[in-house]
From TrEMBL:
Region (Disordered): 253-272
Protein name: NAD(P)-dependent dehydrogenase (Short-subunit alcohol dehydrogenase family)
Similarity field: Belongs to the short-chain dehydrogenases/reductases (SDR) family.
Native organism: Saccharothrix carnea
Keywords associated with the record: Oxidoreductase
Pfam families hit by this protein: adh_short
């Protein structure tokens, strides 16, 4: 049976915080959750664009300033959310950048690793105690099929200071998203209330590809009708990961079509590298050191 948006359960009484929700996948995720009755917070860097997006969504929608390229902004956003909301049911780590030219965040991290992984790692750690008391709460982190492409966690040069490859740096950041999810789920398992789940949108036609080199971008545009799907479809794996009652912690959802490029959301598997427990735990420790954020859940005592 194909999972569609009609299967999203009612979300009345639930609060969803979604990063990067003013456009693309994040906007479609926010729109559908609000239509199902959730109160939705659009956590965005540009609040004016966030307000314009909120005006297009029917329901209880608010805007929170959040710049994932700045740990100062992440901490300020978390403080605002904590002051405004006593609980969070869904934290959806959706925002991201792809194939950016070599540049760094305000804290000196390589832009893709700093935004896609470290910013969300810090935000999750700072908000997690608002989710832990809530039965059925979830942290959903959006990865990519790009986690398989030239992807590894380069502990000897995490910030790509010696060499730089747009594709490899993106792959590292998306692999880190998955490793974060799997390690977080092991730490959450003892609490029994909150779960961590991952999703990917396949190849979706969004603004994310705006930094793709011109030749590749022209090729993608030409092939778009065959290899891509609209953001409305690309958001479905995230929505299933966030709302399907049958979802289990540590699972990964993506499209069911050829090479997971498009289609209906289903349970998928990530690369063998993503399941390396030693690397997951090392990445976690490094991420804590780089961000200065400690989670209110300790390291799992088992690898089950």
């Amino acid at each position: 049976m194909k999972w569609t948006e009609q299967q999203i359960p009612r979300q009345d009484g639930r609060l969803a915080v979604i990063t990067g929700a003013n456009t693309g996948l994040g906007f479609e995720t926010a729109r559908r959750l609000a239509e199902r009755g959730a109160a939705v917070v659009l956590a965005v860097r540009d609040t004016e664009k966030g307000k314009l997006a909120a005006a297009r969504i029917h329901g209880d929608v608010s805007v929170q300033e959040l710049d994932l390229t700045s740990l100062e902004s992440v901490r300020a956003a978390a403080a605002d959310l904590r002051a405004t909301h006593p609980r969070i049911d869904l934290l959806i780590n959706n925002a991201g950048v792809m194939y950016t030219p070599k540049q760094t965040t305000r804290d000196g991290f390589e832009m893709q690793f700093g935004t896609n992984h470290l910013g969300h790692f810090a935000l999750t750690g700072l908000l997690l105690d608002l989710l832990l008391p809530v039965p059925g709460s979830r942290v959903v982190t959006v990865s990519s099929t790009g986690h398989r492409i030239r992807a590894a966690i380069h502990f000897d040069d995490l910030q790509w200071e010696r060499t730089y490859s747009r594709a490899a740096a993106y792959g590292q950041s998306k692999l880190a998203n998955l490793m974060f999810t799997y390690e977080l789920q092991r730490r959450l398992a003892a609490h029994g209330t909150t779960t961590a789940v991952a999703a990917h949108p396949g190849v979706s036609n969004t603004e994310l590809a705006r930094n793709t080199p011109p030749v590749a971008r022209r090729l993608i545009t030409w092939l778009a009708p065959v290899i891509t799907q609209p953001a409305t479809a690309g958001a479905l794996p995230t929505l299933r990961a966030a709302t399907d009652p049958s979802v289990l912690g540590g699972q990964y959802y993506g499209p069911d079509g050829l090479a997971e490029r498009r289609g209906h959301p289903r349970l998928v598997t990530s690369s063998p590298d993503s399941y390396d427990l030693t690397v997951q735990q090392r990445l976690w420790a490094v991420s804590e050191d780089l961000t200065g954020v400690r989670f209110p859940v300790g390291r799992a005592t088992t690898t089950a």
